[in-house]
Amino acid sequence: MGPPGAGKGTQAQFIASHLSIPKISTGDIFRANVSGGTELGRQAKEYMDRGDLVPDEVTIAMVRDRLGEDDARDGFLLDGFPRNVPQAETLKKILAEWDTRLDIVLELVVDEDEVVRRLSGRRTCDKCGRIWHVDFDDKQDDICDDCGGRLFQRDDDKEEVVMHRLEVYRHDTSPLVQFYADEGILVGIDATGPVEEVTKRALTALRPLEN
């Protein structure tokens, strides 16, 4: 867990690969159910087509189904779920039914100024979709070096939108920090610096679980 722009998806991919367990994200689950035409997918699509948030009960049902698949029997990594305390409480009950629990919750810690800099500085190619950064990439123009496409700033990367996303995170998701701290399984990871360094910190935190 962590705020927008903390690098959750990137780190989740590396960690899941290192541990040879599936990375389970709500985004992937939504897409799989919608494209597969499942009943839960149809329900979710109705909300998404209206621009509404998918209700907790639909999200949780999808996650429960995914956790029940064969590849998750020996472990899994959750990315993007739970997003609030009620979801966390329900997840705890589901796992208890299967006589299992979460081993650890990694919180990627990064200050809000850094989040704003990371997200508001991103530029996306309108042809190939590659993301560049005005601070981190050595670029002097608004042209993609890969395909020659035009670089633009996505609406959700604009500073005022990023600030709103952080506000939503503080309100809805940050209480999970205290929830999992009370559970005794929260570990904070400094998420600043090169991606490889953050990955090393995360794997160091996970090392006791591999013994």
UniProtKB/TrEMBL annotation:
CDD domains named among the record's database cross-references: ADK
Gene3D superfamilies assigned: P-loop containing nucleotide triphosphate hydrolases
UniProt: Zn(2+) binding residues: C125, C128, C144, C147
Pfam families: ADK, ADK_lid
Annotated family: Belongs to the adenylate kinase family.
EC number annotated for this UniProt entry: 2.7.4.3
Any GO BP: AMP salvage
Gene: adk
Domain of life where this protein originates: Bacteria
Domain Adenylate kinase active site lid per the UniProt entry, residue ranges: 122-156
Residues at which AMP binds: T26, R31, D52, L53, V54, G80, F81, P82, R83, Q87, R154, R165
Keywords: ATP-binding, Cytoplasm, Kinase, Metal-binding, Nucleotide biosynthesis, Nucleotide-binding, Transferase, Zinc
Domain remarks in the Swiss-Prot or TrEMBL record: Consists of three domains, a large central CORE domain and two small peripheral domains, NMPbind and LID, which undergo movements during catalysis. The LID domain closes over the site of phosphoryl transfer upon ATP binding. Assembling and dissambling the active center during each catalytic cycle provides an effective means to prevent ATP hydrolysis. Some bacteria have evolved a zinc-coordinating structure that stabilizes the LID domain.
Protein's name in the database: Adenylate kinase
Residues given in the record as ATP binding sites: G5, A6, G7, K8, G9, T10, R122, G193
GO terms under cellular component: cytoplasm
Subunit structure: Monomer.
Catalytic reactions on record: AMP + ATP = 2 ADP
Enzyme's top EC category: transferase
A GO molecular-function annotation: ATP binding
Function according to Swiss-Prot or TrEMBL: Catalyzes the reversible transfer of the terminal phosphate group between ATP and AMP. Plays an important role in cellular energy homeostasis and in adenine nucleotide metabolism.
Main location class: cytoplasm
PROSITE patterns documented for this protein: ADENYLATE_KINASE (PS00113)
Subcellular location: Cytoplasm
